[in-house]
Amino acid sequence: MGADVTTLISALVGAVFGSIGAVSVSHFLQQNAKTKKEKRLILHSKLYPLQDSLESLCYRFDNFANRGGQSVVDNNYFDLTMLYSLGRVLASEQLLTMSDVVPLLDLYFNKLGAYLRSNRIDNLFQGIGFHRYDRATLAEMVMTESGGRFRLSTFIEFRARYESESSNAKDWLKPAVSAINSMSPMKLNELLGEMTTIINDLSKETGVPTTINLRSE
Fold first, then answer.
1. Which residue, among 85, 72, 109, has the nearest Cα to 192 in the 3D structure?
2. Given pLDDT bands bounded at 50, 70 and 90, which one contains residue 206?
3. Given CB 3.0 to 4.6 Å as the disulfide criterion, which of 47, 120, 157, 209 pairs with 153?
4. Would you kindly state where each structural domain of the chain is located, as residue ranges?
5. Residue 175 half-sphere exposure toward CB, CA atoms < 13 A
6. According to DSSP H, which parts of the chain are helical?
């Protein structure tokens, strides 16, 4: 009788601990899946657009500073494309800052949040007569509200807004145009170097390969 009771108790204890173990494993797997999903979402919706917009701006700066690109386009095209390229970078950074994922960057991407806070792209454009809220205006001009959320505008959306006769966009963006036109090839190359460093550091943490040295625009 005693042996039977001991066997029964052992079986019950084993079942309880086995059940707890199964629940713990299931919870761990669920949390792991949630973490991976959340990390992918941040990567695709926030970090990749930031890296892509930075790369695009680097090629545009290189084109106009080192390849004679400005000599083959008219002033309107130069202003429009530079405004959009620069605005897309500033908007990408602002959208990231406005989101609730910044604290997660340190957790999921090896303190990437701290890195981006101490290496703000917006700050690179100080000291050229391009003031903080003029930069904010350009960033917001390259945002579009969709479904209660903000996203990056397409080039066509931005161009329509900029060229609309009923819009004040051209007046609001005059400081941005002035700043862009004031940047010498030397300044463009200086910014190019600083942005390339950020791109390479961002690429290392996200695992998204950079094409910065592989193609030209």
1. 85
2. confident
3. 157
4. 42-206
5. 16
6. 2-42, 48-66, 75-98, 102-108, 112-118, 132-141, 155-163, 169-172, 174-182, 185-206
